[in-house]
Amino acid sequence: MGDLYAAGSFTLSGSTVLDKIAKWNGSAWVNVGGGMNNNCSELVAYNGQLYASGSFTMAGSVSTSRIARWNGTTWSAVAGGITTALGGYVSTLQVTSAGLLVGGKGMNAGTVTDANVLLFNGTSWSAVPGIPTNETVLDIEEYQGLVYAVGYRGGLGPAGHVYKNSAVGFEELDAFPALLIYPNPTNDLLQLQGVPAGQVRYEVLDATGRMCMVGSLNNTVDVSALLPGAYQIRITTSQASTIRGFVRAR
After folding, report:
1. What superfamily does domain 4-172 belong to in CATH?
2. How do the domains of the chain map onto residue ranges?
3. Could you report the per-residue pLDDT of 73-131, keeping only the tens digit for each?
4. Spatial CA neighbour of 240 closest among 196, 210, 178
5. Which of 40, 44, 45, 80 is nearest to 60 (CA)?
6. Spatial separation of the C-alpha atoms in residues 50 and 150, rounded to whole Å
7. Cα→Cα distances 104→10, 77, 79, 92, Å
8. Sign (positive/negative) of CA torsion 154, 207, 91, 164?
9. 234: burial class by Cβ within 10 Å (0-12, 13-18, 19+)?
10. I need a labelling partner for 161 at 20 to 30 A (CA). Which of 3, 28, 138, 216 fits?
């Protein structure tokens, strides 16, 4: 857009009321459409417009619910906005080749519920599977054609995690590089080679991030009861976890 904007928790620049977002006109900070009613944490340019996210529910006089769009003149809502569960929030925005990604925790948008990554394609929201729902996504970046997400996990387990996108969603950067799964695609039995020693738990997630199977892992998982499609299997020990993608064949 060629303009400089700033966002945060501020309300004034000198005597000028700004309310969480401001535009620099070359000599002074000026108000942007009345500002927000709560903190604005992220700004990105997407499809020729400015997108803002944060904990606000109003932008100017428009109900916007944690994300808003500025066309240079007025604010508008973004496909119904984002609501959050108790303890949830929106933390980051990133424009990628797939669309606008939104990271956070416990986010609801459109028909998607309890997400930590959302994808906005310019019209509607969709889920991006692969990151556990108890993970809080703090930042998303695109590098050399891959999208990376970083966050931390509540409860037991390691504190920090990094994920990269794949054909079936996000996959955690490999904590167990020797782990192999085959055959892939499979009709029934999924064989695992290089399973870490000790107590190992597995979870199978579908393309929406819904958990379909869970159990203690040895070296074989029977996936014959799953419907055909793309899935992910998350392998977790007391020290780390990793995710592999697989396809349940027809």
Report:
1. YVTN repeat-like/Quinoprotein amine dehydrogenase (2.130.10.10)
2. 4-172, 180-248
3. 999 999 999 999 888 999 999 998 889 999 999 999 999 999 999 999 999 999 888 78
4. 196
5. 40
6. 24
7. 22, 19, 18, 7
8. positive
9. buried
10. 216
> Which of 134, 175, 137 lies closest to 155, judged by CA?
134
Taking the mean position of all CA atoms in its chain, how far away is CA 167?
16
- Bridge pairing between strands 12-13 and 211-216: unpaired
Strand partners, 205: 211, 232
Backbone torsions φ then ψ of 157, nearest 5 degrees: 110, 180
- Cα first-last separation, the chain: 48
pTM: 0.69
Is the CATH code 2.60.40 the one for domain 180-248?
Answer: yes
User: 58-71: per-residue pLDDT in tens?
Assistant: 999 999 999 999 99
pLDDT at 2: 77
Contacts of 248 (CB under 8 A, 6+ apart): 185, 186, 187, 223, 226, 227, 228, 229, 231
